[in-house]
Amino acid sequence: MTVEHTGVDVVVVGGGIAGASAAANLAFNGLSVVLLEKQETYQDIVRGEWIAPWGLREAQTLGVEEAFGLGGAWEIREWTQWDETVDPAEAETVDMTRFVPGVGGPMSFPHHEVCALMAEQAEDNGATVVMGAQRAHVTAGTHPEVRWTHAGQEHLARPRLVIGATGRGCTVGRQVGVSMATSVHHWGGGLRVTGLDDWPMDVQAMGTEDEKMFMVFPQGDGNARLYINFPTANRKLYQGPEGEKRFIADFELASLPDRGKAVYSAAKPIGPLKLWPSVAMFPEQPIVMDGVVLVGDEAGNADTVLGTGLSCSLRDTRAVCEVLTGGDDWSPGAFEGYLAERKFRMDRLHFGADIIAKLYCEYGPAAAERRRRARGLMAENFAASVTGLLNMVPPEDVPDFGFSEFFAERLFRERA
Fold first, then answer.
1. Which of 91, 186, 189, 349 could be cross-linked to 275 through a Cys-Cys bond (beta carbons 3.0 to 4.6 Å apart)?
2. Which DSSP string do the residues of 107-154 spell out, in sequence order?
3. Is 188 helix (H, G, I), strand (E, B) or coil?
4. Looking at the predicted structure, is the pLDDT value of residue 327 above 60?
């Protein structure tokens, strides 16, 4: 026998940052919301754990910023750009607290703990939160349907709208006929660690050495998320039972102070090591249709090296929630503003991600010389660093010239 849920306004499929924030905001504004999450409890499955200042502003607008604070979000105030082409003592440090007034620097946090708190907030606001919802299936149309299984029982809801927020798996998108074109520039891996007591907890590291683009994102109290991007040809480098040890050992880097001893000699895993292709995704069909709207990575994403995925998810959620709480027209036409803004935003983010990937995630002598030259241009003229602003401020606030082919050619032109 199927349990039917009646009187539901919105079903949100996917309880990550995008889905949980949508459920919390919509329920707070009086809508009847069901949030479906396939995990029984939120686990560390190694998702984005860095959010830009402009993304934090979106969280404030949605009313979910407290979930970040209570979930252990840690402000990172400085960004040091280490590299094999620069002596560690001369690496440039950027003050990240000055870009978005009233917000401060970016935040690093345990993703799963913040998701759990957002889902709890959604439930406190009146949403029905279903953890362990399995085999969710969406049918689009003027009268959409969502079917799922929970604890062996079949369930059915016929809401006014379904929000698909299942991330890069694109579960809802595939079910309603949205396919993705993809490109892969490199691979990456992430591992949450503790023991970094000698690492400055307000400083994030990013840099390139040999065939590694490395990152250290502190999370406070000696905890951090370590990332390494590496060539696709090396995708098996950290597989196997000793993968974690090899991953941590690879933070012994000449470009870091004291060769990275504060990391490689002290880091102890407190989460799983996950490896993935860094996929950029481009939707080939509309992400809004009768009865269904896609948000976050489900709607397409830029290369993860840019670090804007969570900020984009919250921007998507805010835009969609404003439509749903702002009037009775929930037809596809009501989301034209969302679609236009998202296209503009993603065009800029894809362009910027391509530049960052080419600059920091390509390896060998020619790539090192390219970085050396680009860093020299940036030191001479701050305008050459304009693409880096995408990590801090919303794409619409980045000067237009940073998205021109002339700018890219100037930045990467090789010496004769």
1. 189
2. EE--HHHHHHHHHHHHHHTT-EEEET-EEEEEE-SSS-EEEEEETTEE
3. strand
4. yes
What distances in angstroms separate CA 221 from CA 71, 106, 282, one per listed residue?
14, 17, 38
Q: Which two tokens stand for residue 46?
A: 């190694």
| Phi and psi angles of residue 52, each rounded to the nearest 5 degrees, phi first | -70, 160
pLDDT band at 48 (very low <50, low <70, confident <90, very high): confident
| Domain count along the chain | 3
Residue 392's SS3 state is coil
pLDDT in tens, 65-91: 999 999 999 999 999 999 999 999 999
Closest listed residue to residue 25, CA positions, set 114, 94, 99, 126: 126
Nearest-5° Cα angle at 134, 39 to 291: 105
Average pLDDT on 235-245 reads: 94
- Structure token pair of residue 365: 């002598």
Q: Does the pLDDT of residue 415 top 80, yes or no?
A: no
Measuring CA to CA, which residue among 138, 144, 201 is closest to residue 174?
Answer: 138
Verify that 37 and 114 share a domain, yes or no.
yes
For residue 328, list its beta bridge partners: none
Q: What is the pLDDT of residues 165-186, one digit of tens each?
A: 999 999 999 999 999 999 999 9
Give 358-380 pLDDT, tens digit per residue.
Answer: 999 999 999 999 999 998 898 88
Q: If residue 367 lies in a helix (H) or strand (E), which one and from where to where?
A: helix 365-380
Is the residue at 356 inside a domain? no
The first and second tokens of residue 68, run together, are 């970040």
Query: Looking at 323, 347, 371, which one is the last position of a domain?
Result: 347
Q: Reduced to 3 states, what is the DSSP secondary structure of residue 365?
A: helix
Do 91 and 196 have their domain in common?
Answer: yes
Least confident of 59-63, 109-113, 140-144, 374-378: 374-378
Helix (H) or strand (E) holding 345: helix 336-360
CA separation for the pair 44, 124 (Å, rounded): 23
